[in-house]
Amino acid sequence: MKTDAPNVAEIPAPPFPSSGSLRWLSARLAAVPKPVAVLLALSLALFIGWVDDLTGWEMSLFIFYALPIIIAVWRCGISAGLFTAAFCGVVWLFANQSSHPYETHLGYAWAMVSRLFYFSVVAFAVNAVRKKQHSDAAHILMLEERRQLERDIVSVSEHEQQRIGQDLHDGLCQQLAAIGCAARVLAEDLQAQKLPAAEDAVMIEESIQLAMLEARALARGIFPVHVDKSGLAAALVDLGRTMSRLTGARIDVRADADVNVDSPEVAMHLYRIAQEALANAVRHSEASQIIISTELTNEGLKMHIEDDGKGLPDPAVRGEGMGLRTMHYRAQALGAKLEIQPRPGGGTRVCCELKTERSHHEKVQS
């Protein structure tokens, strides 16, 4: 006597491939033309149906019909997947018609409807996973392109700053030096002739010398030629001296001279972070005293820039600053942690903590 038909609730949940399986499936199916993928899915469904017919009802293989549906959906989309699901339902119907336990044709037809429902759920579920993976891949690609664009912008900016600094040093400074020499010769000639205009010539020479010093200081600020393995401390000291002379702010640099930075790129990023923090302290915080300090600890290299200015601006205004975004990007490029916080007692405290291997920095043994 035939048994009752199984309940629809007993149908197992559709299988979901793992992430590794998805990558393998995507890589293999991407090279297969869509018509070939559909033909492969239908052929696989026929093969499963043939095996299902041989094994009989006791060894039902209906769960394996999900494989051709997955192939069709993953390569060709939901329409091809639903078509394959309907085809699998027909194949299952013919494969089990001689051995099914149902007493009526209506019961067997209802069983086929339940299988079609299962196959359709598989198709929609795989399509959702497929869309999610494509969306994630597009998002990752967008982030990678954005990061590459940020790198290119910083690289171009760095190159242009170096070019302008080099042009100032090799062009304008040399021109001013030549004019200063000519003014000195003129002053000496006028002094030899004991003419009153000699004093004016001396004043012109002194003004030219001051202008040349300012141009050289500006060139060193734009293009710090001393930022190398053993010169980060010297470059920071020079930066503090230059900014102090140009702005009138009191800048105290406490850079540890024993800290070596092997990578010129790392040293340049740290220098630019300190430079931007100094500029913000002077321009926006109106600080009168700024302290720059570096130290090497067990955790890594730490650099602090503290000022006694007005403190941090409103978060909405602060988030729009190109300089702050550049500082955060430079720290991110180094894998460093950058914190900008209010300083106890007033002002702002910028802390850049670089956790690196000894290949990036090391303490010189005295």
In short:
The chain has 10 helices and 7 strands. It starts with 18 loop residues before the first helix and ends with a strand. The N terminus and C terminus are likely disordered.
Summarize the helices and strands and which ones pair or pack.
Layout: H1 19-30, H2 34-55, H3 66-76, H4 78-95, H5 105-192, H6 197-222, H7 232-247, E1 250-254, E2 259-261, H8 264-283, E3 289-296, E4 301-307, H9 315-318, H10 322-334, E5 337-342, E6 348-354, E7 361-363
Parallel strand pairs: 1-3
Antiparallel strand pairs: 2-7, 3-4, 4-6, 5-6
Helix pairs in contact: 2-3, 2-4, 3-4, 3-5, 4-5, 5-6, 6-7, 7-8, 8-10
Quote the distance from N terminus to C terminus.
96 Å
3D shape = elongated
Here the CATH topology of the largest domain equals: Heat Shock Protein 90
Q: What's the rounded overall pLDDT mean?
A: 77
Number of separate strands:
7
Radius of gyration, in Å, reads 37 Å
- The main sheet orders its strands as 1-3-4-6-5
- Secondary structure class reads alpha+beta
Our estimate of the beta-strand percent is 5-15%
Q: What would CATH call the architecture of the largest domain?
A: 2-Layer Sandwich
Helical amount? 55-70%
Query: In CATH, what is the class of the largest domain?
Result: Alpha Beta
**How many domains make up the coordinates?**
2
Give the biggest sheet: 5 strands, mixed
